[in-house]
Amino acid sequence: MAMRIRHIATRFALILALAAILPLLGYGGFSIWSLQRGTRESVVGGNQNVAARAAEEIRRYISSHAEILRSLAAEIQDTGLDERQLQNVVTSHVLQFSEFREITLFNADSSVIVSSRIGPPRVSVPKDPGTIFDGVSMSPIRVDEDLLPTAVFSIQLTRLNQPAGWLVGEFSLEEMWRMVDQIRIGQRGYALVVAPDGTLIAHGDPDKKALVAQSRNMKGGHPLVDAGADGPTTAEYVDQAAGPTLAVSAPIPQLRWTVIVEQPTSEAYASATALQRYLTVAIVMALLVMIGIGLVFGRRFIAPIFILKRGTQAVASGDLESRVDIKSDDEFGELGTAFNGMADRLVELQENVKRQERQAMFGRVAAGIVHDLSHPIQNIGNSTRLLLRDDIDAESRVSFHQTIERELQTLKRFMEDLRNVVKPKPIERFAMDINTTVAEILDSMRAEGERNGVKVEAQYAQGPLTIVGDRFALGRVFRNLITNGIQATAAGGRISIVTTRSNSHVEVSVTDTGSGIPADRLSRIFDDFVTTKRRGLGLGLAISKRIVEQLDGTITVDSEVGRGTSFTLRFRADGSLQAAAS
């Protein structure tokens, strides 16, 4: 019960705590979700902005130098400059714009007209125009012998809408590398540039610049590169070196390049993770505090239940003087008052029940005494009056005298039964033979059985059955059992007494063929003042049971209505002693 009450207190406290904390948990969960979503959108948006600015810077960088070459082509086309003048123009442009390592002018037949390079030119007329950028053809980027990125710009010259030659320039993209190197996101976020075919052009991570020199193709290892220009611009994937990584991309449509900005997710979402951790700790702390408050106030709230429980247990254990003290003006206070009123009423009812039980017991005892004494007293009175008559012969006088003696013995046994109820007679222990005692009682009770038409017989075990007991007390037990059997058995019936030895015990069974005892009354027949007969106080079996138990024996009963009853007495055998002579 105490465990169940504690569980009620715990559940009540949890209900109170949850009622207060559920809104906080809901708000906290929504806040964490909103924080994660907002942080991701913010980080992705910021990184995409960086990638877009980097793409625009690279586009401007390439476009400005393409514009330089285009301006030079416009300057030398259709101007009629001689070879020396053309040499001066291309040489001055190379000196002025250091990104151009070489500028060479070719005839329509691909022969060299002039070149800024001393010696044979390294560039040639492109067979494949490559990428067309603002009217300028741009070759794929390659790494030269100095491990620097270069590309070749070329413009076809026309005269009267006819091909008149090519202006070809070798362009160094080293500055673009520096631009990419300067793009940093946090501590570990870098940018990279990828060509249309997936070739890595530039990478801001110093540890991965060797991949550029190796012309590493990024396809098959990067989700944004694999998705192509029409795919998503944001992805999270696991990089072999950096682990979980956030990547965003921005295209350079004119070049069909892609600028990708990468950052480890642990760094990208670090502030959100820390804030989420703080928020989670705050929610957990609030939950613990609310549960603690719920436990404290919950136990205080249901404290009257504990008081009522203790009071109920006290009353249930018989302490009807127990009262509860609940000092509150709510329903618990009213319940405590009702409980005390109930306890007061129980005291009154108990006194009434005791008084009624005493009256009922006195009535039963008085009715039993009147019933049991009226018949023998009446017989004694009648026999006495007849003895006083002069016309009674001697034989009749003897019969009346025997009647008076018999009824006086009945009254004596009745008084002894009452005396044993108030003050049991002490038991004297000595060695005795059960067979001898049963035989004596049987001889004295056989005549009474014959008067009632009941045959009384015995069957004895061989040899003496010695126990330590009180011969006269046990004689009274056997007499009571036989008398009850005679009174319960109709004429023509039989009573059997059987003595047996069972291992170290002696058993005596008294069996009649009478009316039997109902099953609902069988368990109470050894109680005081309980009887199944019309006459008697119901003390015989109660006294017999006490005598048997005082001799450390047992008595049991087995009965079936309409077939009879059997009492079995069981005592420990004493083989070391000899039975007393009868």
Secondary-structure map:
Elements: H1 2-76, H2 83-96, E1 100-106, E2 112-115, E3 131-133, E4 136-138, E5 142-143, E6 149-159, E7 162-172, H3 174-182, E8 184-185, E9 189-194, E10 200-203, H4 209-213, H5 223-227, E11 234-239, E12 243-252, E13 257-264, H6 265-268, H7 270-301, H8 303-316, H9 331-387, H10 394-422, E14 430-433, H11 434-451, E15 455-459, E16 466-469, H12 471-488, E17 494-502, E18 505-512, H13 519-522, H14 540-550, E19 554-560, E20 564-572
Parallel strand pairs: 15-17
Antiparallel strand pairs: 1-2, 1-7, 3-4, 4-6, 5-6, 6-7, 8-9, 9-10, 9-13, 11-12, 12-13, 14-16, 17-18, 18-20, 19-20
Helix pairs in contact: 1-7, 8-9, 9-10, 11-12, 12-14
Q: The biggest beta sheet, please?
A: 7 strands, antiparallel
Stretches with pLDDT under 50, minimum 5 residues: 1-5, 576-582
CA radius of gyration is: 62 Å
What is the overall silhouette? rod-shaped
Task: Let me know the number of strands.
Answer: 20
Mean pLDDT across all amino acids: 79
Return the structural class.
alpha+beta
Describe the structure.
The chain is of the alpha+beta class. Strands 1, 2, 3, 4, 5, 6 and 7 form a seven-stranded antiparallel sheet that branches. Strands 8, 9, 10, 11, 12 and 13 form a six-stranded antiparallel sheet that branches. Helix 8 (303-316) runs parallel beside helix 9, helix 11 runs parallel beside helix 12 (471-488) and helix 12 (471-488) packs antiparallel against helix 14. A hairpin with a 5-residue loop joins strand 1 and strand 2 (112-115). Helices cover 51% and strands 21% of the residues. Residues 1-5 and 576-582 have low confidence and may be disordered.
